[in-house]
Amino acid sequence: MLVLSRRVGEQVFVPACQLTIQVLDIAGGRARLGFSAPASVAIVRQEVLPHHVSDADVEGGDRILAARILLADPDEFVAAAYAECLRQRGATVATASTGLECLEKLQDFHPHVLVLEPELLWGGGEGVLAVINEQPDLRPAFVVLATYARDRSLLHRVSRFKVDDYQVKPLTATRLANRLNRLLGLQHGDASRQAVT
User: Could you say which architecture CATH assigns to the domain 68-183?
Assistant: First the structure.
């Protein structure tokens, strides 16, 4: 068992798995922890709240996501805004701006969630989905399409692949974070979906 004194900045290092745990901040009787570990170490996030605090007392936008999220979007400004919001809520985030870079990150980063803009250069979102379909070991737990495109031909082309959610841009970073909370089963404390490996 690890014990932290609840001082902001305090760190504990676990040599056996190269895991570092740090107290990031403390507010309202809750400590927010940051975790740093090699990609091969799975980190499972669970809310531990006193019995007198209900799930309704915790804002959905503040709960996330000890998960690895890959944002594949050709617009660097959009990707940076999403990444910053998700990192502030505890996620580990990587970005990719092309289909080829996305496939490399899927292989190296092993994300739990892929947020994919279908209009990627060098392979496109459809190409990424086709490779994931052929190589299931690359598939993250969830795939979310986020795009400005509203045409039915795009939806028809990607419908043959397993996509968990479709979001139409403009999509705020907060709305994306809340959507990912729901996908990961954290929004309403669904214990059966809290563990992401």
Answer: 3-Layer(aba) Sandwich (3.40)
